[in-house]
Amino acid sequence: MYWTKTLSNLVLTVDSITQIIGLPANLLALYTFIQKIKQQAKPLDILLLNLNISDLLVHIFLPLRMKEAADMKWTVSYFLCPLMEYVIYTTIYNSTLLLTAISVERYLGVAFPIKYKQYHNSRNAVIAVVLFWVVTMAHCSFVYIVKQYESECVSNGTHQVPVTRDSCYMMFNDKQLEIILPFRLELFIVLFCIPFIICSFCYIKLILILSRLHNINYKRRRRAIGLALVTFLLFTICFMPFNVSHLVGFIGWHSPSWSVYTLLPITFNACVDPLIFYFSSSMLRQTFAKFVAGLIKRLEVFCFWRLFKSSTVKERLQNSQHFTV
């Protein structure tokens, strides 16, 4: 219904990069976080693990959107359409809350180090992540509520057009808009604006505090500031356009057609989150270094074996030619 060749190519390009780079990186991060939590469960590790799980859920359902983009229509069971949207929307807002909690955790650890060590514990982090999952899953159930009000025709802004099952629904009738638009505004305010304000405060204060702590190693301090700045920029770039489309849609009382483009940086976020994991966890850096070293070693052995076989074949050919002559 909304697919164009340009949009199809763009979605396939972004989602393919996300899958090729992000999936193995997130699987490696998942293995590392599980091993680390088995040894000693720290609040930050629990938050990062759940952010990692959110990203992996995106990777699981991303092939469905890639297939739709490739075919330029929905060709699989329509049951999977609302399920895909439900999972992706849940991971979007769950990631928003988790990134906010990570910013609070980092800020408190630097601003109030003594009290932070006294009162922080893994139980509070577990309670927080369970609450985040429950809240986001409950909110995003609106996908199924809206589905109940589907009709044979939908509005495209000027007139009514028939509904077809060739696409995962992106256009809504008037009854659906009455439900969706106010609810999207609530999502924008409660699950984006408030977390964004908290995240902005924490990272700005964190950067200011770190810039004044000259007693800390310069490289360590610079890496911490860089991590805070990059995490905040990714939070803003990846999640703001999608949520702003909710506000624009409510003001204009329509579902913006360009909002489909705002999902691209969100899905790509699943590819760049491992960078946050990498610089946040020394154990992950060690695991990644071991993985790369093992991969290089295997490649060297493989290349040596191919070279050895090639040399052996050449020698055999030369010997056979010699005997022939």
Give the domain tally: 2
Shape: globular
Query: What is the CATH fold-level name of the largest domain?
Result: Rhopdopsin 7-helix transmembrane proteins
Q: Bin the helical content.
A: over 70%
Mean pLDDT: 83
How many β-strand runs? 2
Query: By CATH's scheme, which homologous superfamily of the largest domain applies?
Result: Rhodopsin 7-helix transmembrane proteins
Provide a count of the helices: 10
What proportion strand? under 5%
**Rg over alpha carbons:** 25 Å
Main sheet characteristics: 2 strands, antiparallel
Order of SSEs, N→C? HHHHHHEEHHHH
Helix/sheet category: mainly alpha
Question: Describe it for me?
Answer:
- The radius of gyration is 25 Å and the shape is globular.
- Helix 1 (5-39) runs parallel beside helix 9 (263-280), helix 2 (43-71) runs antiparallel to helix 9 (263-280) and helix 3 crosses helix 8.
- The longest helix has 43 residues, at 282-324.
- It is mostly helical.
- Helix content is 81%, strand content 2%.
- A hairpin with a 4-residue loop joins strand 1 and strand 2.
- The termini are far apart.
Short recap of the structure:
The chain has ten helices and two strands. It is an all-alpha fold and about 325 residues long.
What attributes characterize this protein structure?
325 residues; mainly alpha; Rhopdopsin 7-helix transmembrane proteins; 2 domains; two-stranded antiparallel sheet; 2 strands; 81% helix; GPR40-rel_orph; GPCR_Rhodpsn_7TM; membrane
Topology:
Elements lengths: L4 H35 L3 H29 L8 H32 L1 H7 L2 H18 L2 H6 L5 E3 L4 E3 L11 H39 L5 H35 L10 H18 L1 H43 L1
Helix pairs in contact: 1-2, 1-9, 1-10, 2-3, 2-5, 2-9, 3-4, 3-5, 3-7, 3-8, 7-8, 8-9, 9-10
Membrane topology: Multi-pass membrane protein
Subcellular location: Cell membrane
Protein name: Free fatty acid receptor 3
